[in-house]
Each structure stands twice: as C-alpha cells, then as structure tokens.
Amino acid sequence: MHPAPVRYTPSQRDDGVAIDASTQADPRSTSRENDLRHTLAERVAKWTEGVDHLTTAIPNLSFHRREAPTQPMDCMVEPSFGLVVQGAKRMIQSGDAYIYDANRFLITSLDLPGSTQVIEASREKPYLGLGLKLDFRVMAELMAQVAPDHDEAPAGRGLVVGDMTEPLYDALNRLLALLDDPNAIAVLGPYVEREIYYRLLTSDQGTRLRQIASAGSQGNRVSRAIRWLRTHYDESLRVDDLAAQVQMSSSTFHHHFRQLTGMSPLQYQKWIRLNEARRLMLSERLDAASASFRVGYASPTQFNREYSRLFGNSPRRDIDSLRGGTDVVLSIAATY
Predict the structure, then answer these.
(1) Which of 270, 293, 269, 261 is nearest to 280 (CA)?
(2) If 0-12 CB within 10 Å is exposed, 13-18 middle and 19+ buried, where does residue 183 land?
(3) Does 188 share its domain with 244?
(4) Same-domain check for residues 247 and 295
(5) What's the rounded Cα separation, in Å, for the pair 270 and 314?
(6) What whole-number distance in Å separates Cα of residue 102 and Cα of residue 99?
(7) What is the distance between the alpha carbons of residues 28 and 103, in angstroms, rounded to a whole number?
(8) How crowded is residue 326: how many other Cβ atoms within 10 Å of its Cβ?
(9) Where is the stretch described as Disordered (predicted)?
C-alpha cells in the first residue's frame, strides 16, 4: 500500500532539514529492481553534473539535482509523473504532505498549487529527480485498450503517491538511455513513453488517472476549468458561469473542485494571482500597486492584505527578503 498523506503543521513548513524518509532499497525489491534503480540514479547524475535543472532532448522530460536540503518553495505542479531517484522530497498541497523517494512515485493529474521541499540531499549523495509531463490524450487512447487492474476507487485529491515496480523502472531506464542516441529519440521515444503510461495505468494509482483522463468525468471537467483559470486568472470570476462552461451544476462543481484541489475556485484564482504578482515584483521589478492591477486586483489595499495573509509579510518586505536569499523560485512551475 502507498503511504497516505499526512496533515502538515506550520512548524514543519519552515524547518528546512531532512526528516526520516529512507531511500534505501525496499526490502521487498528484487535484485533486478535495485539494479535498475541504481542505473536510473547514475543516468540522472551524469546529465545533471554541475546544474540544478535540465530540460532534456526528450520532450516533456526534465532532470533535477540538489546537493543540500532546501526550504519549501511555492510552485504550480503540472499534470506529471515525478520520481526521486536518489534522496527524498516532500510536496505540500492544501495542508497535506506527500513524501516520495526512489521507491515511490508522485502523480499529479491536475495543475495544482503547492510547495516542494528537498528533505534528503548532500554533496556526496545529491538529490536527483526526474519529471515527465503527462499527455492525457495519449492516456485516453491507452485507456480504451487497457482493462483496469483495480476496482474503482472513490474520487480524491488530484495528487497521489504510488509504489514503483520493476517494469516501470525498466521502461524509465530505456527512455533515459535514448539520450545517448539522439537520432533514436523521435522514433523510439513515443513508444517508450506509451509503455510508461501503460505501467502507470496498471499501477496501484491507475484508477486515479482514469478518473481524470476519462472524457466527461467530473475530474476531466474540473481539469478543463483549471485550464481556463490558468489562462484567465486576471479576469473577474463568476463561478456559476465557469461551472456552466464545463457543464456542471454550481454545487457539483464546487464539491469536485475542492475535492480534487483542496481549495475553492476563488481560492485557486487568488493563489495564481498572488504568485504571479510576486514574480512580477521580483523579476520585472514592478511596484506592488502595478503588480496588483496587472493580475486583476481593483484594490491595492485588498491585494496587500491577501498577499500578507498568503506569504506572511507585506509585498515590499517579502520581495526584499527574497532578493536577499539564494533559493528563489521565479516562476510557478514544478521541480521534481
């Protein structure tokens, strides 16, 4: 069974130190699984030598490296598969903490705001991770051919941790091996990715993926609403209109949106607005009033109040603090 998320307390958010999250080989693993896990770590280590982040030649595949634990960093996690091949990481989403390592993968089936933190890393044994963005069009094609291996599960949060398997380790290794043969990527890459999708659909978290990818499902409709919010965050939001747009009643839309994201549509929009304003002030050096208008606020006073509530400080003090730090996230994107 995969570990259930645990409630997260404010003191845990700020400690910035490693916790007990073993990345040793699972005693239930076969020797081949352990070899495949070790090979994955070697491949990612080779490509990330000297860099924190690498967008690879394989579309949708990225690598990440850290040589020390990090403070929590706000991010927007895209629909993706994430695996820590060495070290451990914690994802916090709406008060729930998900810890994953080389034995457990993280699937995000929606664009979800949250916070990530590397909790196990050192110069001698750096944190190494990979992320693969998911294409739900391909997922839907495979679903028509693959019978579910597990009984239908009740709908839950759009972020889950699942157990790695030998076939999944194997497929990931073959995908990463293509980086050494660039001419083969365009020909063989899509086939290996389809196999990875198949392994995920038949994993212990396959039912969650089906709930989101199924055309007409509640999860799919919420996903469409989220895509609209990501694009139109600076516009006035009438939740009833958005619910109608995705063909749901207002009450059903509210229920499923909160169930999948842990927040209401208005809270989701507010998170996007405030984080984009933070980015504008930090990277484009806009003042707070200009940034607030740019992201859709009509009142700088309301903006300052909501900004302070989310980030724990006024816009000016928060930006001054971030500029003095060394571990700043300038965009709302996932880092695996």
Answers:
(1) 293
(2) exposed
(3) no
(4) no
(5) 16
(6) 11
(7) 10
(8) 4
(9) 1-36
Residue 315, domain CATH: 1.10.10.60
User: pLDDT digits over 137-183, tens only?
Assistant: 888 888 878 766 655 555 567 788 889 999 999 999 999 999 999 99
* 245 occurs within a structural domain: yes
319 in the same domain as 254: no
The DSSP secondary-structure symbol of 3 reads P
Q: DSSP letters along 50-101, please? A: T-SEEE-SSTTEEEEEESS----EEEEE-SEEEEEEESEEEEEETTEEEEE-
* Amino acid of residue 167: P
> Which value, to the nearest 10 degrees, does the dihedral of the CA atoms of residues 95, 158, 271, 114 take?
50
Counts of helices then strands in the chain (DSSP H, E): 13, 11
Domain total in the chain = 3
Helix (H) or strand (E) holding 125: none
pLDDT band at 28 (very low <50, low <70, confident <90, very high): low
Does some domain include residue 177? Answer: yes
What is the distance between the alpha carbons of residues 317 and 144, in angstroms, rounded to a whole number? 53
Indicate if 256 and 274 belong to the same structural domain. no
Which pairs from 183-187 meet CB under 8 Å and 24+ separation?
185/57, 185/58
Is residue 329 included in any domain, yes or no? no
Structural domain includes residue 95: yes
DSSP string, 191-206: HHHHHHHHHHHTSTTH
Higher pLDDT, 66 or 223: 66
Give the pair of three-digit tokens for residue 175.
């995908």
Q: Regarding beta strands 112-120 and 73-77, do their DSSP bridges make them parallel or antiparallel, or are they unpaired?
A: antiparallel
Residue range of the domain that includes 150: 6-213
- What count of other Cβ atoms lies within 10 Å of the Cβ of residue 275? 22
Both 276 and 250 in a single domain? Answer: no
pLDDT at 210 over 80: no
pLDDT in tens, 51-73: 999 999 999 999 999 999 998 88
Question: What is this structure's pTM?
Answer: 0.78
The conformation of residue 95, written as its DSSP 8-state character, comes to T
Q: How far is CA 239 from CA 47, 114, 249, 267, 295, in A?
A: 45, 22, 10, 11, 18
Let me know whether 143 and 246 are in one domain.
no
Residues 57 and 200 in one domain: yes
